[in-house]
């Protein structure tokens, strides 16, 4: 059997010495690459595209949840346009508190990152050092949502809260929005309105 394989390899090398042989070898190589791409469920271009689309879909889901909860935020794209380098999916304009975990404690949240994947220890620990620590150093504590769940026991970091979904309204705490009246255009009116506001 080993002799047959060796004979086939020698025959292939011999055929490849002619122009038509080179064309045959290239066609076979192309067919092999296409077969490999279709068979690879982890690193093929199709898989990368599917992961990218799932990530965008779940970022949009996060933005919709933030808008529904009336939480003001900047998107990753808006932050990059401002010249920021390391950016989470959403940076909250005003921090919130989210209640979570087995003890239902309140956690301060300045930023949220969306992961359209399952959170395992290896992936999370590498992301924690490469990505989340940068966010906590720049913005403060935050939240990572693993939309496809995560291994229990990984919720041991005080600065990075892990959840499987966006918190419900009863598990969110926001600062009340202040209604600041528009000050008048005249200087006298401005002084009077400012005095009234300060007296309150």
Textual characterization of the structure:
This protein is an alpha/beta fold and about 200 residues long. The protein has a domain at about 55-175. It is about 50% helix and about 20% strand. It is built from six helices and six strands; from the N terminus they run αααβαββαβββα. The protein has helices at about 1-15, 20-40, 45-70, 75-80, 120-140, 185-200, and strands at about 75, 90-100, 105-115, 140-145, 160-165, 170-175. Strands 1, 2, 3, 4, 5 and 6 form a six-stranded mixed beta sheet that branches. A hairpin with a 4-residue loop joins strand 2 (about 90-100) and strand 3. The protein is elongated, with a radius of gyration of 28 Å. About 20% of the residues are buried.
Uncertain segments of ≥5 residues (pLDDT<50)? 186-200
DSSP summary: helix tally: 6
The H-and-E topology, N to C, reads as HHHEHEEHEEEH
Structural class, from helix and strand content? alpha/beta
Q: Summarize model confidence as the mean pLDDT.
A: 82
Strand content: 15-25%
- Main beta sheet: strand number and arrangement? 6 strands, mixed
Form type: elongated
Radius of gyration: 28 Å
Report the count of strand segments: 6
Helix percentage: 40-55%
Straight-line N-to-C gap: 94 Å
């Amino acid at each position: 059997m080993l002799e047959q394989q060796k004979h086939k390899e020698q025959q292939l090398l011999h055929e490849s010495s002619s122009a038509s042989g080179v064309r045959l070898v290239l066609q076979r190589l192309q067919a092999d690459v296409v077969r490999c791409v279709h068979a690879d469920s982890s690193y093929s271009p199709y898989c990368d595209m599917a992961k990218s689309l799932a990530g965008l879909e779940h970022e949009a889901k996060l933005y919709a949840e933030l808008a529904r909860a009336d939480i003001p935020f900047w998107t990753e794209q808006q932050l990059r346009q401002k010249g920021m380098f390391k950016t989470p999916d959403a940076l909250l304009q005003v921090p919130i508190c989210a209640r979570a975990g087995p003890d239902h404690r309140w956690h301060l949240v300045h930023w949220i990152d969306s992961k359209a994947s399952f959170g395992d220890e290896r992936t999370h620990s590498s992301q924690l050092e490469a990505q989340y620590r940068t966010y906590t150093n720049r913005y403060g504590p935050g939240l990572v949502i693993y939309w496809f769940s995560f291994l229990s026991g990984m919720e041991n970091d005080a600065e990075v809260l892990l959840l499987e979904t966006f918190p419900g309204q009863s598990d969110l705490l926001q600062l009340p929005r202040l209604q600041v009246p528009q000050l008048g255009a005249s200087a006298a009116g401005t002084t009077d309105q400012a005095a009234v506001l300060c007296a309150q």
